[in-house]
Amino acid sequence: MARRRVQRTIIGAWVGLLVLLGACGARPEPSSQTETGKVRFKIGYLPITHAAPLFLEKYRWNGSRAAYLPFELELVKFGSWTDLIDALNAGKIDGASVLAPLAVKAKERGIDLKIVASGHRDGNVVVVSPKIQDAADLKGQTFAVPHKFSSHYILFYAMLKKAGLHATDVSVVEMPPPEMPAALSEGRIAGYAVAEPFGAIAVAKGFGKVLYQSHELWPDSICCVLVLRKDFIDRHREAAVAFVQSYFDGGHAAESKDAEVKSAINTFMSVEEKVLDLSLKWIRYDDLTFSEDAYDTLRTYLKETGISKQPPAYADIVDETLIKAVEAEKAP
Ligand code: ZN
User: Which CATH code, of 3.40.50.20, 3.30.1060.10, 3.40.190.10, 3.40.50.720, is assigned to 125-217?
Assistant: First the structure.
């Protein structure tokens, strides 16, 4: 009975998201011009360590140094992926750091966005109760993901497939990420996969352990991506190229994982140092390019998991021109 109620809740949440995704109304232009002629625009994010390149971009260019940039960036914090996608759809933000499967679903529903870069490399873990020895032990148990349209659901699917299990062998529930560590410690779930630092919380505090790193289940996985609305790119190409350049620089800075990086991350989210240190061990920010091969693997998973029947082709959803313009500027 309880499981049926959980399933009904999940179905309700998915239907709610689909309604939001489908509600493509009028789209006001959120960007504007400053008095000095710069393009001012808004990028959405969730407070997760996966968005560190964005945090570093903003943190490093604050104060008087920002005068050198041809744009003025405002980062807009969201409490859930659904709210963020809704804002993209409504034209309240010009782009976002968002889960790739959600970007694909948004594109399918008519939001004309483009993936312009990756958010990070690797950096996800499957966390389980210490009682779980391998994936087969999850049979008949409850496992949490943040959203069905997530890389974390794909990791869950890949783990079950590797263990010879089916998605129906485990009861999967959607749960807000901040609730997951407590749900694991209280025995309400046997494990979870989610963006960081929520996996590291359970491991650092000793009531969860890593069953798999993402690269063990899905090499070169795609999790978060940086998206921009196509109309923003078309209207403000120069500012978009400069922003992507600055975002890549933010990624290189984040990869040092030093005190400055931790300060930058803590400016945008609250996380204990030992938890952050663990999270940062698992992730890479040094290469934020986006490859067609990796996208093809994501497409295959999206179809296998039923997340998308016909995901958009690489050329329809990825805009390589911004990265290429950045690379051309760097060439001697
Ligand atoms: Zn991510």
Answer: 3.40.190.10
